Amino acid sequence: MLFLTYINLIMPTYSKKIAIIGAGIGGLTLALALEKKGIDFHLHEQANSFEALGYGLQLSPNVVRVLQDLGIGEELEAISHRCLGFELKSFKSNNTLAQWKLKSDTPYYQCRRADLHQLLYNSLKNKDKISFAQKLQSYEVEGEQIFLNFENKNSITTHALVGADGVRSPIRQSLFPTEKPQYAGYAAYRAILPFTPEYNSLMDKATVWMGENHHVVAYPNGNQNKTQPWLNLVLVVKDAQWHEQGWTIPADKQEIAENFQNQSPLLNTILKDLVSNPEPCFKWGLFDHKPLPFWTQGKITLLGDSAHPLLPFQAQGAAMAIEDAYILALCIDQETTIEKAFIKYQDLRLKRTTKVQQTSRNNADIFHATGIKAMVRDTGLKLISSINGELLNQKTAWIYNYDPLTLPL
Ligand SMILES: Cc1cc2nc3c(=O)[nH]c(=O)nc-3n(C[C@H](O)[C@H](O)[C@H](O)COP(=O)(O)OP(=O)(O)OC[C@H]3O[C@@H](n4cnc5c(N)ncnc54)[C@H](O)[C@@H]3O)c2cc1C
Q1: Are 136 and 165 in contact (CB under 8 A)?
Q2: What is the dihedral of CA 170, 171, 174, 178, to 10 degrees?
């Protein structure tokens, strides 16, 4: 029955029927962007129901621009806090190394990942275009058609396939069988705490404490009812071994508090609150992938973490997935064939995402520097911040000022 429905749907727009695998942030954004353009698609998600996972997300102006253009700017504002600037602090001395105000006409938001995911889902008018419990197992390309085989024994035929299936993408693995995501040598702990008055100095910004082999990011984020803000915490430590996989592995909070002891009274209070607070804390190993030479093969392409898994040290993973989705929808809309659209999309995106991947990896070294390297970093940051803090804005301008709405397509 599903098979027949699918065939019926694709008949009128034969050449532009898209199957998207994965209803994460990238897949949902692509669905929304295609729906806005009246392009037919179907989204297949392996989870049994809508699953909004994770804690905080920072949404820099480059991605807020896209979400505003997709018509969800007001709703985004309602679930977010506005970040006005940044502060970098030393884990060892608690000294401020640098602080600066963000200069942008477009807001920088901090929200809960689950709220953004829910917002994207709610914004889709036609929920019939999403099927859950559809884990893609394999696919075969035969002439003009692609056969998708799902674990629940469902099979369908499509004419174009987008792998928005995350860091462990089976579609990427089929395109690059010998390439695998690599454990990057860092474990991340994520937690949220109710935002108490003690944390007031962390309001309206993102604060990063940098120390030897450790760093902590703290920022406020909203909740859907605007009743109470939360403090979002990401604690990252160098850890040579990693064996477990998954997004919801519970962490030992007492162990974290001991491991992250530092010279900042505020950060130590946060760690104490973390231990006593009933909200769970999760850990996961950070994986990335060396940049791929291409993402498109005929009528198959990749998007988001599946195309370019990133370390979270520039807060750009979801941002790149959302930019990808927006530009892919533009290319599909404007090109005469899917093959041309997928190649154009790849050409427009590959260089930028590769550079963001590399920058995120470099930031890992900077945040976790030890010895002389750490001294050079701290002195350099203090100097730049005192002479001309604007230089710190310029460092991220190529990321935040990017405006996909004005790309020459
Ligand atoms: C600690 C940490 C902090 C972060 N902070 C930020 C931040 O501040 N800002 C930011 O922009 N990014 C951040 N990110 C990154 C961001 O969360 C990811 O980059 C983003 O979610 C990627 O979206 P995606 O849609 O590509 O993949 P995902 O969100 O992983 O979605 C993939 C989807 O595909 C589905 N799927 C997988 N395999 C199959 C299959 N075989 N069949 C069907 N469905 C399948 C999955 O169930 C999932 O729903 C952070 C990441 C980490 C780890």
Answers
A1: yes
A2: -70
Count of the separate structural domains present in the chain: 1
CB distance 155 to 148 below 8 Å: yes
Q: Tell me the CA–centroid distance for residue 359 and ligand 1, in Å.
A: 19
Dist. CA 53 → ligand 1 center (Å): 9
Q: What local confidence, expressed as pLDDT, does residue 52 receive?
A: 63
* Integer Cα distance of 34 and 46 in angstroms: 21
**Where residue 171 sits, what CATH number does that domain have?**
3.50.50.60
Q: Are the C-beta atoms of 35 and 126 separated by less than 8 Å? A: yes
Mean pLDDT, the chain, rounded, equals 90
* Residue 119 pLDDT: 95
Residue 328 lies in a domain: yes
Q: What is the pLDDT of residue 280?
A: 87
CA 305 / ligand 1 centre spacing (Å) = 6
Res 13: pLDDT: 41
Tell me the C-alpha distance between 151 and 162, whole Å: 18
The pLDDT value recorded for residue 242 is: 72
- Considering only CA atoms, which residue is closest to atom 37 of ligand 1? 165
For residue 351 the two structure tokens come to 């260089």
Domain with 358, as residue range(s), is: 2-51+115-179+290-368
Place of tokens 């005929």: 298
CB neighbourhood size of 16 (10 A): 21
Burial of 360 (0-12, 13-18, 19+ CB in 10 A): buried
Residue 247 confidence (pLDDT): 65
- Of 16, 64, 13, 20, give the one whose Cα is nearest residue 42: 20
Q: Tell me which DSSP letter residue 313 carries.
A: T
As given in the structure block, the two tokens for residue 252 are 């030992």
The reply to whether 265 falls in a domain is: no
pLDDT at 243: 64
Could you tell me if the CB of 285 is within 6 A of ligand 1?
no
CA-to-CA separations, 63 to 119, 237, 324, in angstroms, rounded: 15, 28, 10
- Locate tokens 């093959």: which residue? 339
Q: Which residues of the chain have pLDDT under 50?
A: 1-14
DSSP H or E run through 68:
helix 61-69
